[in-house]
Structures are given as structure tokens and as C-alpha cells.
Amino acid sequence: MARPKIALIGGGNIGGVLAEQIAYRELGDVLIFDVVEGMPQGKALDMAEGAPLAGSDVSIAGTNDYKDLAGSDLVIITAGLARKPGMSRDDLLKTNLEIMKSVAKGVRDNAPDAIVIVISNPLDAMVYTFKEISGFPKNRVVGMAGVLDSTRFRSFVAWELGVSVEDVSALVLGGHGDTMVPLVRYCTVAGVPVSQFLSSDQIEAIVQRTKGAGGEVVGLLKTGSAFVSPALSAIEMAESILHDKKRVLACACLCEGEYGVDGLYVGVPCVLGANGVERVVEVELDEDDRKAFDASVEHVRSLVSQIDL
Ligand code: TXD
């Protein structure tokens, strides 16, 4: 039985961690694609030479030729510029839009049956662009942002309480930016609502830190943005797809009526399995969360309205 073939479009900071994690966890054969001559080949060769130490027998290859994508089961896209200090994710739109158009055509023409996870920013606009250009069905095009934002929220709650990160569950919905919506009411610690452990001020501070978490890392790194936690977030999604786990995860999905949204990609809970986004899960939002969610959707809509396909 052949291993799944996983193509990574973009072999930079996130792409490198993706390749290493996927290969050393033996999730599938890895192909790194990038436009920089030799870089994907060099990274792949280095990881392949280290594979005995991870006990991994997958194949790891690099290429600058889209034709090598043939037969890919899963494609994960990080192609595009990352933020520098002082930049918002939206500032990347103009440049990354052109990159995403070329990537979408390359994937469409060479891996027409793949499930695609988009990571590039501004995420909600980039995953929409990929869907529109590729023409892939909505279940096979999903954006990674909510898993990262929810994971950051979980970490901040766990650190504040001094408990295991494994016992904190959280859902962050909406657009991947300052308007994201952490659903505080649904955050639990060992199944118990977080409001039984933290004051509203403490919770609000965690909400704000989550919204600014990407920028906090950019400000410290100065040369780019977070790359390990985003890569691991995409791995969580990839494992649910490759192993048909049916995880309920916050992902950027195309909503066609769900949450009152029609025709936009926005972060919502969904079931991720062998068919990609198997369904969007609608949860009740109270008045405040609904207002925040609608505002976040409007921000995504205004960003997408600037896209000239
Ligand atoms: O939660 C999220 N979705 C975000 C996404 C979390 C963190 C970072 N986010 C975004 O992912 C970030 O703002 C960027 O837009 C992407 C990739 O971030 P990364 O840190 O990996 O950027 P790098 O290291 O610059 O890597 C980008 C690679 C680089 O090697 C380029 O040569 C390549 O993209 N690139 C291309 N690959 C293929 N095709 C084209 N046209 C192309 N142009 C550049």
C-alpha cells in the first residue's frame, strides 16, 4: 500500500518545519516545492540524510518544477511573504495574492485531486483566492488559522493557571487577525468552564494577548513571523485528514449559509476527515460573540473585496 504523497508549496520557515515533522512522523512521502533554485532540494536532502535517526523510511524530495506534484494526496501551501515588524497580515495582500494565483494554477494543473491546506497570509483572502483560481470543491480547500489561534489561547490559559496544556480546550473563530473571536464561554479546563478559575479581567487579558500573539512573535523575531506553532497547527489538520480522524477543529472553511455567512472563507469549527472538510459545525453564539463574529466576517469581506482575480 503506497504512502500518501504530501506536497509542500513553499519551503521556507514554516515549510521546513512541516517537511521535518511530516517526514519524521512518517505521515507520508514529502515533496518540497519552492521557487528558490536548489533550496528545496537542499533541505530535503539534509532531512533525508537524518531520517535514520528518526527511524523514518519516507521519501523526502525537493523540486522547482510543478510537474513533480503529480499524484499528491495533500498539498500544504505556505508560499508568500511573511510579516516584518509594523506590518499587519493585510499588508501582505497585494504581493501574496499574485503568488497565490500562480501557486493555485500550478496545483490545479498538476495535483487536481489533492486536498489543500492554505497557510499563507492574509489567510482568509489567500484560501479564498486558491479556491476561486483552482476551482477545487470546497471540501478540498481549507485554511489553517483557527487551530493556531485556539492553541495560543490554550497555552495562555494553561500558563496562567499552572495546569497542563492538555487539559485546556478552546475555540477561536472568525478571521485570522485582530478581529478573531475567542469563544470564552466554550473554553474549559478539564471540562470545567474557565470562568470558574479566572477572573473576567484575567480572561480579557488572555483574549487580547491571543489576538496580538502573531505580532508579539514578529516584534521579537524582527526578521519574520511565527513558524513552529503554525506548522504544528497544520500538522494537526493534516493528521485528521490523512488518518480520517474526524477531529472537530477551527479552520477557515467556505461558508454557504452557515453562521449566516454566504460565499466567504472564515474560521469556523468543522469536521476534518479523509474527504477534507466533511461538514461545518454550527455552535450557538451569544449576543456578544455573534456581534464580534459578524464584525470579523465583515473585515474578511472587505479584504476579499480588494481581490482582483
Ligand atoms: O496562521 C497562519 N495562517 C499564519 C500564516 C501563521 C504564520 C505565518 N503565516 C504566513 O505563512 C506568513 O505570513 C507567510 O505568508 C506564510 C509563510 O510564512 P514563512 O514564515 O514560512 O515565510 P518564508 O520563510 O518567507 O517562506 C515562504 C516561502 C519562501 O521560501 C519563498 O521562496 C516561497 O515561499 N515562495 C514561493 N513558493 C512557491 N511559489 C511562489 N511563487 C513563491 N514565492 C515565494
**CATH domain class name of the largest domain:** Alpha Beta
Residue share in helix: 40-55%
Number of DSSP helices? 9
Instruction: Please state how the strands of the largest beta sheet are arranged side by side.
Output: 3-2-1-4-5-6
Assembly type:
single chain
The second-level CATH architecture of the largest domain is Alpha-Beta Complex
The main pleated sheet reads as:
6 strands, parallel
**Count of domain modules:** 2
Coarse structural class: alpha/beta
Q: Give helix and strand order, one letter per element, not per position.
A: EHEHEEHEHEHEEEEEHHHEEEH
Q: Can you offer a commentary on this structure?
A:
- The protein starts with a strand and ends in a 5-residue tail after the last helix.
- Helix content is 41%, strand content 20%.
- It is α/β, with parallel strands linked by helices and 309 residues long.
- The protein folds into 2 domains: 5-143, Rossmann fold; 146-304, Alpha-Beta Complex (L-2-Hydroxyisocaproate Dehydrogenase, Chain A, domain 2).
- The protein contains 9 helices and 14 strands.
